[in-house]
Amino acid sequence: MRNIPYGRQQIDQDDIDAVIETLKSDFLTQGPKIEEFEKAFAKYVDVKYAVAVSNATAGLHIANMALSVKEGDRVITTPITFAASANASRYCGAEVWFADIDPDTYLLDINAVKKLIESKPKGFFKGIIPVDFAGLPVNLESFRSLADQHGLWIIEDAAHAPGGSFIDSKEQVNKCGNGKYADCAVFSFHPVKHIACGEGGMVTTNDEEIYNNLKLYRSHGITKDNMSEDPGGWYYEMQTLGYNYRLTDMQAALGLSQLKKNIEGVARRNEIANRYKEAFQNTAIKFQSLPDGALNAHHLFVIEVENRKGLYDSLRANNIFAQIHYIPVHTLPYYKEIGYGDADLSKAENYYNHCISLPMYPSLTDEEQNYVIKKVLVFHG
Ligand SMILES: *Cc1c(COP(=O)(O)O)cnc(C)c1O
């Protein structure tokens, strides 16, 4: 049997053809595929605006910039995420404080966030960055009302969740990244995520001003719109200090072709999740709970077990490359040394001691999954 990783991309002939077609076209970058991809993605997640970027970390950076995050601001995020969720605010000079997770959903616990905010004077914090961890959507309606009470912005880190959704109190389905409750959302097109561009990302928003700023920061702060003068066709203005965070047309062509498969991909991921749940339901193995009405996009399938290191090593010995998501960000040496706040993060730390992500990707066969299940149960049943 081939090695079984925890996640992998699926590249079919139509993906390859799409990239080759772009290679033969007039534009390798800054061409028509970018806008086509942005429009298709915006439609997919039910949002007004989408801005394609070179990766989700760049997307998080310009999302912070578009929300005017600056030196000395304080933001709150979850410790159970990839470091980039926190790092992007650091690029803008902000302090990153952590609040604990809910031990059942593994998501940022709104009560812990509330407690942290209320323990400080008014205006102490500026924003919240909740993460749709493993693909499970955060209930942003609740976070929005908390944020509004305290004048905070929200950036949804939806890197794990294209195609996920939750139902709000009005019984409306809210797709991750739809911008109804968050100011903006960020997606990743790294190959372990749902949509593979090699590298790539997308920022979504319903706010026109944020959208215009995202476009400026993506491309050096240079624009041909809203200029102070217009002496001729060559003229452009650099209106602010931006970056080169652009996606190429080859990547956008691949992204477009990958996006078309994501509905099917998320359905298959849920099929795989249900097979795992069925196999582990009467054992001591614990898995992420699913709130009523939520659709988990399942970037990951995480279980919690007593002897995690033992299971990790035993699966490796059987060519199953399970992974750990994540080492809590506040325990990484860089953040440990800074040591923002003193919130109780024991649930995140306890989760980390037991979690392991099993193989989860649409092309995982039933036979491969049965093999994984068997090896997990042999060790842990
Ligand atoms: C992968 C990931 C990112 C960063 O994505 P890149 O596209 O690799 O920059 C950010 N946040 C989370 C939660 C991620 O999993």
List the helices and strands and how they pair.
Layout: E1 4-5, H1 13-23, H2 32-45, E2 49-53, H3 56-66, E3 74-77, H4 84-91, E4 95-98, H5 110-118, E5 127-129, H6 140-150, E6 153-157, E7 165-167, E8 173-175, E9 184-188, E10 201-205, H7 208-218, E11 222-223, E12 237-238, H8 249-259, H9 262-280, E13 286-287, E14 301-304, H10 308-317, E15 320-321, H11 333-338, H12 346-354, E16 355-358, H13 366-380
Helix pairs in contact: 1-8, 2-8, 3-4, 3-7, 9-13, 10-13
The structure holds pyridoxal-5'-phosphate.
Bound small molecules, by name, code or SMILES, are: pyridoxal-5'-phosphate
Which parts are unreliable, with pLDDT below 50 for 5 consecutive residues or more? none
CATH superfamily of the largest domain: Type I PLP-dependent aspartate aminotransferase-like (Major domain)
Total tally of structural domains: 2
Q: Would you mind describing this structure in some detail?
A:
By secondary structure, the protein is α/β, with parallel strands linked by helices. The protein has 2 domains: 4-259, Type I PLP-dependent aspartate aminotransferase-like (Major domain) (Aspartate Aminotransferase, domain 2), CATH 3.40.640; 262-380, Alpha-Beta Complex (Aspartate Aminotransferase, domain 1). The chain contains 13 helices and 16 strands. It has helices at residues 13-23, 32-45, 56-66, 84-91, 110-118, 140-150, 208-218, 249-259, 262-280, 308-317, 333-338, 346-354, 366-380, and strands at residues 4-5, 49-53, 74-77, 95-98, 127-129, 153-157, 165-167, 173-175, 184-188, 201-205, 222-223, 237-238, 286-287, 301-304, 320-321, 355-358. The strands form 5 sheets. The protein has a 7-stranded mixed β-sheet, sandwiched between helices. The site of pyridoxal-5'-phosphate has 14 residues, from helix 3 and helix 4. GO terms for molecular function: pyridoxal phosphate binding; transaminase activity. The active site is at residue 193. InterPro entries: DegT/StrS_aminotransferase, PseC, PyrdxlP-dep_Trfase, PyrdxlP-dep_Trfase_major, PyrdxlP-dep_Trfase_small. The modification N6-(pyridoxal phosphate)lysine is found at residue 193.
